[in-house]
Design goal:
Helix content: 25-40%
Order of helices and strands: HEEEEEH
Structural class: alpha+beta
Distance between the termini: 17 Å
Largest sheet: 5 strands, antiparallel
């Protein structure tokens, strides 16, 4: 059902925005971003992913394509479990607020 998948998409979007907020808090203390998708959990673990509450998305964090993790971060939510039926395979959000998506248009995936 399309509305169920859109609801699942909202879960991924909300979690990405939460990760972005946590990354900014981490940056304000460390003067760098982190590849840990749960950067406020101690100890910080490079490459640690997180899963949304209902298990529909796995979120990872990496340096932006042209930058380093110290100055630029992109969080990526990848659809898993029942959410893989959605046309939006991934959702992304950068430290500068740029939204992205694969599998469908950015406008469709972030509406």
């Amino acid at each position: 059902n399309n509305s169920v998948l859109r609801g699942g998409r909202a879960e991924g979007q909300a979690e990405l925005l939460q990760v972005a907020a946590e990354q900014e808090r981490f940056f304000s203390n460390q003067n760098s971003y982190s590849t840990d998708a749960t950067p406020l959990v101690t100890p910080n673990v490079a490459g640690r992913d997180r899963t949304t509450q209902n298990g529909l998305w796995t979120i990872s964090v990496d340096a932006c394509g042209a930058g380093t993790i110290a100055t630029c971060v992109v969080a990526t939510a990848t659809a898993v479990n029942a959410q893989v039926a959605d046309s939006c395979d991934t959702l992304t959000f950068t430290n500068t607020g740029v939204r992205g998506a694969t599998g469908d248009t950015v406008n469709e995936c972030w509406r």
